Amino acid sequence: MTDDQSKEPGLEPDGTPENDAAGADQGTSRRGFAYDGSVDSTSYEDETDDAPEPETGGSSRPPVAIILVALVVLIAVGVGIAFLMSPGTPTETAQATPTVEEIAPEGSLPEGSLPEQMPLLTAIGSADSTEVIVEVGEGGITRGDFVRLYQPGSEPAPLLEQLIQIELVVQQASQEGVVVDETEIDQQVEDIKQSQAGGDDALFQEFLVAVEVGDEANLRRLLERDYIVEQMILKHTVSEQARARHILLASNGVTDTTGLKAEAEALIVQLNEGADFVALAAERSDDPGSKDTGGELGWAPRGVFVPEFEEAIFSMQAGEIRLVESDFGWHIIQLLDAAEVRPFESADFLQSMGGQQAFAESFIPWIEELQANAEANQLIRIIVPADQLVSLPETQ
Q1: Could you give the CA distance from residue 237 to residue 329 in angstroms, rounded to a whole number?
Q2: Residue 156 phi/psi, 5° resolution?
Q3: Residue with more model confidence, 53 or 297
Q4: What is d(CA 283, CA 60) in angstroms, rounded to the nearest whole number?
Q5: How far is residue 105 from each of residues 96, 102, 110, 114, 391, measured CA to CA in Å?
Q6: How confident is the model at residue 354 (pLDDT cuts 50, 70, 90)?
Q7: How many degrees, rounded to 5, is the angle at CA 91 between CA 87 and CA 203?
Q8: Among residues 179, 199, 219, 169, which one has the least CA distance to residue 363?
Q9: Do the Cβ atoms of 172 and 232 come closer than 8 Å?
Q10: What is the pTM of this model?
Q11: 228 and 180 in contact (C-beta within 8 Å)?
């Protein structure tokens, strides 16, 4: 067990060293447990070491969210609000493209026969363009959004398709009554301003121009779109979930846990005699992520908790109390609500194996049907085909 794991007792990944090392930091949820997905399966698209990344300041969501969260990760249905990354500067392109020396080391080819670097396709137009390139129902996709998100050298058609799907989701959200939490958007804007410009308005404006967002109004538009799509993902990603709370008596690496088990059994006796679970959790639980909320873990799908814990909560009856041992100690578990199929409450779960499976089995078919219906009703009209949105630099 790693030091990080010991701080999040009992509700970690499946205990294998590979998962422990990979998921220790980015997998930790607001409830004090971590997920079992690997870094590769949960990393956001298009993140680079060179891109400036705002600090969250302790927020449960990054202030500049990557749009569609798991969409980007799993099927690339959506693209991020990648305005913190300038699309393909010459320096970045040169770093990403193999050099002549890497392709053919000096002396390996006759003089004059070394290959030259091929130019990459680039987007035509500017990131502030409001030209509509695709009409989607009563809305549209602008050239500016395409230019801002296009990565030099990539195929343009998938990005255009992704932008169409994003617009369809946003329009469907309006029909379903999904609204933006303006307070959260305000906080995200302020977080970005503080992290990127120290709160200075003039510097903030310079930053927005430099990353091709333009102004604060457009930033808000992107963040609001991000928020809406995330809510729709949660609403239309469903799986079997159970709701439980627990009190953990951590073993802290001790192999003989007989004494801890006796303590746990004594606590169960108190609970059966009417003791308050919330009070006991606050007093006795060693899980820092849940003890201050009475041990509450909320609704959670399969693939989130350690196997022993998961097996228990998906086989218990509502109200039942059960004692379970895991590598982290003894858990006194009470099932608050029996397992049922329901939408996700937290985007954190989309990073778990269970969340990814639920996403693939429920959200993907939903969005495919949404797009198929729009096409059948002729609600999508491509004005500028994908291949006309890019060109080689010398031909622009």
Answers
A1: 32
A2: -80, -30
A3: 297
A4: 26
A5: 18, 6, 11, 10, 30
A6: confident
A7: 60
A8: 169
A9: yes
A10: 0.69
A11: yes
**Residue pair 378/136 in contact by the 8 Å Cβ criterion:** no
Could you give the angle at the alpha carbon of 305 between the alpha carbons of 249 and 303, nearest 5°? Answer: 170
Q: Which residues touch 191 (CB under 8 Å, ≥6 apart)?
A: 54, 55, 56, 57, 59, 63
Which two three-digit tokens encode residue 195? 């992290």
Model confidence pLDDT, tens digit, residues 165-197: 999 999 999 999 999 999 999 999 999 999 999
pLDDT at 246 exceeding the cut of 70: yes
Distance CA 66, CA 156 (A): 20
Nearest to 127 by CA among 208, 66, 62, 192: 208
Quote the tokens at residue 200: 């200075």
- Cβ atoms of 169 and 232 within 8 Å: the answer is yes
Q: Which two tokens stand for residue 119?
A: 């130019």
Kindly state the tokens that stand for 201.
Answer: 């308005």
Under 8 Å between Cβ of 329 and 249: yes
Q: How many CB atoms lie within 10 A of CB 92?
A: 17
Query: If DSSP states are collapsed to H, E and C, what string results for the chain?
Result: CCHHHHHCCCCCCCCCHHHHHHHCCCCECCCCCECCCCHHHHCCCCCCCCCCCCCCCCCCCCCCCCCCCHHHHHCCCCCCCCCCCCCCCHHHHHHHCCCHHHHCCCCCCCCCCCCCCCCCCEECCCCCCCCEEEEECCEEEEHHHHHHHCCCCCCHHHHHHHHHHHHHHHHHHHHCCCCCCHHHHHHHHHHHHHHHHCCCHHHHHHHHHHCCCCCHHHHHHHHHHHHHHHHHHHHHCEEEEEEEEEEEEECCCCCCCHHHHHHHHHHHHHHHCCCCHHHHHHHHCCCCCCHHHCCEEEEEECCCCCHHHHHHHCCCCCCCEEEEEECCEEEEEEEEEEEEEEECCCHHHHHCHHHHHHHHHHHHHHHHHHHHHHHHCCCEEECCCHHHCEECHHHC
Are the C-beta atoms of residues 201 and 190 closer than 8 Å to each other? no
Structure tokens at 331: 């858990």
